[in-house]
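Marked as duplicate of an earlier ticket. Keeping the data here for the record.
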Amino acid sequence: MGKRLIQQRRGRGTISYRVRRQAYCHRITYPNIEGTGKVIKFLSDSGHTAPLALIQMGDKYFYNIAVQGLEEGQDIIIGKNAEIKPGNILSLSSLPIGTNLSNIELTPFSGGKLVRSSGLSAVVTKKLNGKVTLLLPSKKERLFDENVRATIGIVAGAGRTEKPFVKAGKRWHLMKARNKLYPRTSPIKMNALNHPFGGGRGKNMGKSSIAPRFAPAGRKVGLLRPRKTGRGK
């Protein structure tokens, strides 16, 4: 009897596929109040690709994604009438077209959810009837409520992907911090009892990479209900 496929083992949740330490130590959220805060210090979190900023507002503290140009000791403002300045948190209705944004809420006062990876930003493109259109880093445009809040600026840490890992061990620790499987073996290099694509000669899986629509879980690998294939182009 063959082994479970990788996706089946991950779904079962054995110890090999769990985060072995608390990767997301700091919860990123926006306080539901307006006012002025101060950046206390910057932090590094293995669960995030960008540095985090610890911000104090009166007797309350919260973490936010750091943006380019933000400094320790700098004051930031949360509110509709805040200045258009990196680090300030405003609603989309207060922002001019062409502003770079990060850590965007999906719904008003829900906390930042989108555009949080290092070097990324969204851009305000249109405003109409209480809705604001943003151009996301994926080059897709999306409508948001004008009361949704976001941080002004580009996420800090750009150029992270340009630095080589050099050593496999360094990449192993990074992948484990995010609960990723590493190193990964290609299915066509496995034995036939370990994967439906295994057991071939060289790089030949011996069957179509499109999984049958009503295949059982152990057979449903490859392209699942693809809209397009290499034919007919």
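See parent ticket for discussion. The chain has a mean pLDDT of 87.
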